[in-house]
């Protein structure tokens, strides 16, 4: 643990004194690069998402497979019903807690001063953890301002290291509201992002605040019916590198500066997905990938529909 803290201290000191980036001097297992968030905290740029894991038990096994393959970032949520599995995997792995990044998300029915702090404590209990590295408000509906106040208190208490907003690309109003109401500013925005929906407008909006973007549905998700994986342009680039289309897309995300959260429960896919740090896309290939942008999103639920439905969904403790 001491060596880890020394490495992270040296890394931060170097970045303060020069223009060297976190990616240049610090990487995790499996050569995964690190990004420095706007609060100075260092986060692995690539991780396993646990959305739609078949069960909590399967999630535990998926996380253990991922940890053995070099993953050190796990993204879960109360709504996924598999936080406990993530926590058990972390404990069973024998890997020091400080070497693993854990992200989770609060559901709208848990928002509100006092109410949210209780939800955070229950989250820590479910995962058997002393702290969460990154905590999101999962959806921009309900009393997310009240939730944020408790989340800020949780940071001050050492229960959470960084705060994020998920799906706050829903409208300018919800984004302005959270920015105007917060003392601790969001460090990360998690949104749907992939080569067909590269989100240049959102990227420009968050840039002044130093908010880092994490991509969900980085390969388009199930709703895309594999459109990105079947794209002839992407497949041509993949063939040139002896890689799969998925690996090329993930590599594009990394080189574009996004963090990537990719869901998988198949052990072979989990191992394959992280094998993207032994090659690079050249400038021509990056330009070609950027040319694929169609502003085409595959998950299209309106903010109004979220307000009607999400506040009615209660989470189990």
Question: How are the elements arranged and paired?
Answer:
Layout: H1 2-17, H2 22-25, E1 34-36, E2 42-44, E3 46-49, H3 56-69, E4 73-75, H4 83-93, E5 101-106, H5 115-127, E6 132-137, H6 144-156, E7 160-166, H7 172-181, E8 188-192, H8 200-206, E9 212-216, H9 232-241, H10 245-256, E10 259-263, H11 267-273, H12 283-290, H13 303-309
Parallel strand pairs: 3-4, 3-10, 4-5, 5-6, 6-7, 7-8, 8-9, 9-10
Antiparallel strand pairs: 1-2
Helix pairs in contact: 3-4, 5-6, 9-10
Task: Give a quick set of tags describing it.
disordered N terminus, 8-stranded parallel β-barrel, alpha/beta, two-stranded antiparallel ribbon, 317 residues
What does the model show?
- The chain is an alpha/beta fold.
- The chain contains 13 helices and ten strands.
- It has helices at residues 2-17, 22-25, 56-69, 83-93, 115-127, 144-156, 172-181, 200-206, 232-241, 245-256, 267-273, 283-290, 303-309, and strands at 34-36, 42-44, 46-49, 73-75, 101-106, 132-137, 160-166, 188-192, 212-216, 259-263.
- Strands 3-4-5-6-7-8-9-10 form an eight-stranded parallel barrel. It has a two-stranded antiparallel ribbon with strand order 1-2.
- Helix 3 (56-69) packs parallel to helix 4.
- The longest helix has 16 residues, at 2-17.
- The model is unreliable at 1-25 (pLDDT under 50).
């Amino acid at each position: 643990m001491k060596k880890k803290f020394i490495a992270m201290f040296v890394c931060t000191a170097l970045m303060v004194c020069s223009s060297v980036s976190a990616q240049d001097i610090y990487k995790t297992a499996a050569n995964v690069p690190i990004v420095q968030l706007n609060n100075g905290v260092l986060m692995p740029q690539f991780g396993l998402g646990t959305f739609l894991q078949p069960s909590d038990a399967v999630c535990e096994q998926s996380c253990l497979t991922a940890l053995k393959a070099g993953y050190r970032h796990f993204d879960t949520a109360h709504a996924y019903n598999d936080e406990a599995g993530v926590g058990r995997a972390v404990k069973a792995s024998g890997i020091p807690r400080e070497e693993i990044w854990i992200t989770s998300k609060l559901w709208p029915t848990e928002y509100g001063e006092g109410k949210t702090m209780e939800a955070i404590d229950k989250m820590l209990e479910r995962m058997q953890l002393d702290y969460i590295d990154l905590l999101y408000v999962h959806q921009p509906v309900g009393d997310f301002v009240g939730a944020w106040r408790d989340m800020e208190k949780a940071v001050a208490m050492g229960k959470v290291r960084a705060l994020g907003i998920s799906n706050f690309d829903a409208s300018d109003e919800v984004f302005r509201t959270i920015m105007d109401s917060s003392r601790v500013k969001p460090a990360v925005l998690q949104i749907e992002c992939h080569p067909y929906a590269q989100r240049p407008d959102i990227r420009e909006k968050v840039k002044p605040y130093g908010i880092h973007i994490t991509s969900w549905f980085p390969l388009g998700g199930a709703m895309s019916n594999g459109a990105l994986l079947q794209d002839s342009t992407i497949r041509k680039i993949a063939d040139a590198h002896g890689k799969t289309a998925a690996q090329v897309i993930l590599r594009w995300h990394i080189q574009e500066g996004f963090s990537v959260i990719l869901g998988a429960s198949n052990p072979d896919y989990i191992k394959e997905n992280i094998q993207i740090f032994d090659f690079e896309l050249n400038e021509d290939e990056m330009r070609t990938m950027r040319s694929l942008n169609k502003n085409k999103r595959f998950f299209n639920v309106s903010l109004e529909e979220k307000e009607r439905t999400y506040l009615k969904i209660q989470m189990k403790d």
